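Quick review question:
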């Protein structure tokens, strides 16, 4: 498995208004792309997530896994980004899986139709629980 976010630690972390830094971990393992989101996924971070998806569009990716277990909060722009990625998965015939978030973020998925539209799982498929 290759970690493609090596420069991630050196780049400045964005802080949300609540003070939680957003971090994006990106790993490619064969034909699966893993995106681990931590902190607050808000409108300021959407571009980073979309850029990570674009970078792998030509890499024969057949599955994208959004690991949201460590996500502290999510705004409407972040939620829309996940739903657009899901629409793209259906159109381009790749699988998109979302590892269930916890706390308030999980509640957002419960209260909106996002929980019904996305494929939600309790653990990262193809990897151990520690992810």
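Suggested answer, residue by residue:
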């Amino acid at each position: 498995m290759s970690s493609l976010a090596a420069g991630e630690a050196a780049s400045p972390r964005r802080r949300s208004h609540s003070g939680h830094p957003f971090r994006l971990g990106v790993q490619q393992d064969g034909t699966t792309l893993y995106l681990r989101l931590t902190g607050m996924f808000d409108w300021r971070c959407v571009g980073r997530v979309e850029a990570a998806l674009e970078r792998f569009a030509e890499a024969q990716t057949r599955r994208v896994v959004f690991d949201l277990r460590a996500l502290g909060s999510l705004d409407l722009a972040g939620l829309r980004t996940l739903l657009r990625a899901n629409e793209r998965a259906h159109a381009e015939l790749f699988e998109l899986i979302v590892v269930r978030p916890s706390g308030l973020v999980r509640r957002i998925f419960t209260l909106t139709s996002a929980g019904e539209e996305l494929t939600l799982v309790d653990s990262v498929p193809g990897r151990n629980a520690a992810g």
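Why it works: Confidence is low (pLDDT under 50) at residues 2-17. Residues 76-92 form the longest helix (17 residues).
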